[in-house]
């Protein structure tokens, strides 16, 4: 999805997936959906197709754009878990999607705790005081 993808009458869907062998956590965030140059004044519906908690495929409309009344929509970094497909369910576009992809590497769970530190070595934090008005 970076720097973005475009859905058109000839390319109605885009699938973002990661390697199943990858042991990292992936977050995909959709920031903005907007009509691109050459769009007609028609309803352009963009859906996100993913899987729910029961691993069933679901399609959810996330944007309905029309050149004369709503040419763009900010989705405020709507977070999704790959694999996910973006589909132009209605209209001919072009619709541009932008967002970001973050990879969080899982830490090795077999770390050792250092027993040399005693509770006496811990620094005491001062209490939080209310602000004087």
UniProtKB/TrEMBL annotation:
Domain Nucleoplasmin core positions: 4-102
Pfam families: Nucleoplasmin
Coiled coil: none
Annotated region (Disordered), positions in chain: 112-133
Compartments reported by the entry: Nucleus, Nucleolus
Start-end of Acidic residues biased regions: 112-125
GO BP of this protein: chromatin remodeling
Tree of life domain: Eukaryota
Example GO molecular function: chromatin binding
Gene Ontology CC: cytoplasm; nucleolus; nucleoplasm
Keywords: Acetylation, Chaperone, Methylation, Nucleus, Phosphoprotein
Similarity remark: Belongs to the nucleoplasmin family.
Subunit structure, as described in the record: Interacts with NPM (via N-terminus). Forms a pentamer with NPM at a ratio 4:1 (NPM3/NPM). Two pentamers form a decamer.
Role this protein plays: Plays a role in the regulation of diverse cellular processes such as ribosome biogenesis, chromatin remodeling or protein chaperoning. Modulates the histone chaperone function and the RNA-binding activity of nucleolar phosphoprotein B23/NPM. Efficiently mediates chromatin remodeling when included in a pentamer containing NPM3 and NPM.
Name the record gives this protein: Nucleoplasmin-3
């Amino acid at each position: 999805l970076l720097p973005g993808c475009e859905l058109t009458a000839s390319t109605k869907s885009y699938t973002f997936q990661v390697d199943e062998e990858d042991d990292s956590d992936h977050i995909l965030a959709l920031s903005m959906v907007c009509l691109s140059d050459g769009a007609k004044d028609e309803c352009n519906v963009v859906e996100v197709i993913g899987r729910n908690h029961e691993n069933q495929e679901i399609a959810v409309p996330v944007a309905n754009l029309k050149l004369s009344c709503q040419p763009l929509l900010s989705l405020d970094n709507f977070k999704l878990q790959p694999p996910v497909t973006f589909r132009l369910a209605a209209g001919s576009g072009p619709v541009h999607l932008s967002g970001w992809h973050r990879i969080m590497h899982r830490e090795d769970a077999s770390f050792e705790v250092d027993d040399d530190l005693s509770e006496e070595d811990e620094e005491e934090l001062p209490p939080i005081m209310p602000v004087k008005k």
